Amino acid sequence: MDSMAFEVELAMPYADAVGAVEAALQQEGFGVLTRIDAHEAFKEKLDVDFRPYSILGACNPPLAHKALSNRPEVGLMLPCNVVVESIGSDRSLVRILDPQAMMQAGGFDQDPVLAEVGGEAESRLRRVALALQS
């Protein structure tokens, strides 16, 4: 696990991992607003093969609303990105961006409202990572 993300290695194929991640996010109040399938885009735009790799844009509407109502520019850092990639035939890697690290990088960590939102988002996303590990 690096400082910008929570990492979880899963003993399941990529397609199953994407479903498991989406279900775990939903349990914590996050929906997936966007999905970028990098492997499909690279094939279409560059005609190159790439391992299955998706970037999911996860959003918790109440937290996003609170953050954007307080500081509209925080929208540059939304939604929370979650990456799912294949690391073998029956193995996948999930990386979940740490909202606290994102707030610090954006200079928003000194704002009390955003600190609260970031803390709540971090707690929820940590629970997503823990749920995936079990």
Structure description:
The protein is α+β, with helices and mostly antiparallel strands and 134 residues long. The chain has a single domain, classed as TT1751-like domain (TATA-Binding Protein), CATH 3.30.310. It is 46% helix and 27% strand. A five-stranded antiparallel beta sheet has the order 1-5-4-3-2.
| CATH architectural arrangement | 2-Layer Sandwich
Domain tally:
1
Q: Globular, elongated, flat, extended or rod-shaped: what is the shape?
A: globular
Helical amount among residues, as a percent range?
40-55%
Arrangement of strands in the largest sheet: 1-5-4-3-2
Poorly predicted ranges:
none
Short description:
The chain is of the alpha+beta class and 134 residues long.
Structure keywords:
134 residues; alpha+beta; TATA-Binding Protein; five-stranded antiparallel beta sheet; 5 helices; 5 strands; globular
